[in-house]
UniProtKB/TrEMBL annotation:
Residues 486-518 are annotated as: Disordered. The keyword Metal-binding does not apply. Its main location: membrane. This is AP-1 complex subunit gamma. The lineage of its organism: Eukaryota, Metazoa, Chordata, Craniata, Vertebrata. It holds the Pfam family Alpha_adaptinC2. The keyword Membrane applies. GO terms for cellular component: AP-1 adaptor complex. It comes from Eublepharis macularius (Leopard gecko).
């Protein structure tokens, strides 16, 4: 029907009565929207109507041209030549005096002005020449439009969108940001909301200009309207950078203490991310996170506890300060579960510093052992404590038990034994194992309960999912491997490794230089008997995963029959070149549905042609039996002295390796 009537509609738009012409132009817009093939038939009509003086017809003509330009690149190129004419119409409307027929609130034909601004935005997009020809007109509209009425604000907002949508001059873009800044103090909450949303979108492109309005944005946090308040919070968090982090986070903490519960989670998470990214020092970072946990501990993300523990563990010089601050916070309030979990962990790890009363950052406070045990007992008995919190408290008691003597040990044993019949399986298992340490392995209790070694923290992307990155393994074996590759002859926390293995009855040599082979590390032990009873592992065909610079890396795979989800990979690195390749290191990353353990290599130098290869064992746990993908990062130095770093993707594992 549109195809049949297009000619009639065009004729009526050209020669009909004014009221009929206006309706015919609107009909032409709908025809083009439904049947874009008919655009060529209406291009000439758009040119003619643009010069028409009849009120209402130019408005429809601008709508028609905008629709054609959106649908057809040839029409867009054609009407770019009419930009000077459109700019002239806009100029006449801005400088025109009051007209009772066309003016609204003292502004001449605001609907036509808005439509022209939208059309200019379409014509100037990605077109520098066209954008330059409209800069003066946009500046005139931005500076001469009255803002006391909502009509003027609508035109100014459309002007801002046009300025930011075309390739306008930098000064004009700053003017547009300043207009939005004035909107922030408008009495109309809708205008304030629109300004905040627009500034959020423009922050990436015009960060410096938006930063000038930071104080006004922060003032919007006190707005009575909850939607404006939420938008102001989002923009305030986005405005945080290294130069204003102290002042902005202070304002956000004040807001966190008084805001509605539905905003506390977003505010707390935003403060955590900003503090982690822009913290000027570790003490400020720790203080900030502690304030958030104190004020809104029940609203923080699940990763807040391990992140703060990792932060405190890495700040060796602040252990005394952190444990004292956490102890005082815990004594005042045990209702905020994340705060209680971090505090009990720190008391278990660094409680000896509280007992010694040593702190250089603030006035030291010496804590009585019985007082500390009473506080942990209070946490265990509180109806507010979650099972995970009680688990932290039990572990803290055991850690303190390795540093206390006399009646305190008996009190700890009594508290732990209470949970040997707990209904929660995790707590019951933990208590039973801790009780066994007191009864059977008391001679190993001190070594087993030493301070935890600092583990590497996994990275996270913007949407909160864990990144796949080389070296994401955090096992003790990886730390030993890194020590070998760096030339360090002493692995970190080697005594803990030895003690853990001694608990199973296997003698072990903690030296990291021992190559990883399939030869048993103990003879005549109970574990050897179990090994002998196991059926042989299923071997798979070797897989060549890297072959460059005369280096060949092959994976020999096998799956133990009694552990169908485990894949054992022996990486063999051989060198075909006559010279030695030094400093060789191999790191592995897998998707987060897998677990990987990279054991120590047999060496870091790959001998030249004819020399023995080096080997390294990789353990892959695939509980869901998904197709295996792996990313390798190889680093080595060629005989010529050239350092090489490469990243390889391996996805050609046979089905037998994962099914």
């Amino acid at each position: 029907m549109f195809r049949d009537l297009a000619g009639e509609v065009e004729q009526l738009a050209r020669e009909g009565q004014p009221s009929v012409r206006r309706k015919a132009v609107v009909c032409a817009v709908l025809i083009i929207r439904k049947v874009p093939d008919l655009i060529d038939a209406f291009v000439a009509l758009g040119d003619q109507l643009l010069t028409d003086r009849t009120h209402g017809v130019p408005h429809g003509a601008v709508m028609l041209i905008a629709e054609m330009c959106e649908q057809n690149p040839q029409a867009l190129e054609h009407f770019c030549k009419r930009v000077p004419h459109l700019v002239g119409i806009l100029h006449n409307l801005v400088v025109a005096g009051y007209s009772p027929d066309n003016s609204i609130s003292g502004i001449s034909d605001p609907f036509l002005q808005i439509q022209i601004l939208r059309l200019l935005r379409i014509l100037g997009r990605d077109n520098e020449e066209t954008s330059d020809s409209m800069n003066d007109a946009l500046a005139q509209v931005a500076t001469n439009t009255e803002t006391t009425r909502n009509v003027g604000n609508a035109i100014l907002y459309e002007t801002v969108l046009t300025i930011m949508g075309v390739q306008s001059a930098s000064g004009l873009r700053v003017l547009a940001i300043n207009i939005l800044g004035r909107f922030l103090v408008n009495k109309d909450r809708n205008i304030r909301y629109v300004a905040l949303a627009s500034l959020q979108k423009l922050l990436q492109a015009e960060g410096c200009a938006v930063q000038r309005h930071r104080s006004t944005v922060l003032a919007c946090l006190t707005d009575p309207d909850p939607t404006v308040k939420r938008r102001a919070l989002q923009l305030s968090l986005a405005l945080v950078n290294s130069s204003n982090v102290r002042a902005t986070i202070k304002e956000l903490l004040d807001f966190l203490s008084t805001c509605a519960p539905d905003l506390k989670s977003d505010c707390a998470s935003g403060i955590f991310l900003a503090a982690e990214k822009f913290a000027p020092n570790k003490r400020w970072h720790i203080d900030t996170v502690l304030q958030v946990l104190t004020m809104a501990g029940s609203y923080v993300r699940d990763d807040a506890v391990p992140n703060l523990i990792h932060l405190i563990g890495g700040a060796t010089e602040l252990h005394s300060y952190a444990v004292q601050q956490l102890y005082e916070a815990l004594a005042q309030d045990i209702s905020q579960q994340p705060l209680v979990q971090v505090a009990t962990w720190c008391i278990g790890e660094y409680g000896n510093l509280l007992l010694a009363g040593s702190c250089e950052e603030v006035e030291p406070k010496q804590v009585d052992p019985e007082e500390m045990l009473s506080l942990l007992e209070r946490v265990l008995q509180s109806h507010l404590s979650l099972p995970a919190t009680r688990g932290y408290a039990l572990t803290a008691l055991m850690k303190l038990g390795s540093r206390l003597q006399g009646n305190s040990i008996n009190r700890i044993r009594r508290l732990v034994s209470i949970y040997c019949s707990c209904h929660d399986i995790e707590l019951q298992q933990r208590a039973v194992e801790y009780n066994a340490l007191f009864r059977k392995y008391d001679h190993l209790r001190s070594s087993l309960l030493e301070k935890m070694p600092l583990v590497e923290k996994a990275g996270y992307s913007e949407d909160g999912s864990e990144k796949e990155q080389p070296g994401r393994e955090t096992s003790i074996s990886l730390h030993i491997s890194e020590a070998v590759l760096s030339g360090n002859s002493e692995p970190p926390e080697s005594s803990q490794v030895s003690d853990l293995l001694n608990l199973l009855g296997d003698p072990t040599d903690p030296s990291p230089l021992q190559p990883v082979t399939s030869t048993p590390v103990a003879t005549g032990s109970f574990l050897d008997l179990l090994r002998d009873l196991k059926p042989p592992a299923a071997a798979l065909s070797p897989l060549a995963v890297y072959e460059q610079d005369e280096l060949l890396v092959e994976f020999s795979m096998e799956r133990p029959p009694l552990e169908p989800t485990l894949l054992l990979i022996t990486a063999t690195v051989s060198n075909r070149a006559p010279g030695d390749v030094t400093g060789f290191s191999l790191q592995v990353a897998v998707p987060k549905s897998f677990q990987v353990e990279l054991l120590a290599p047999s060496g870091s130098t790959v001998p030249g042609q004819g020399g023995p290869p080096i080997t390294q064992l990789i353990r892959i746990l695939n509980p869901r039996k998904l197709p295996l993908r792996m990313r390798l990062r190889l680093a080595y130095t060629l005989p010529s002295g050239t350092a090489v770093q490469r990243i390889e993707e391996v996805s050609s594992f046979p089905e037998a390796a994962w099914q």
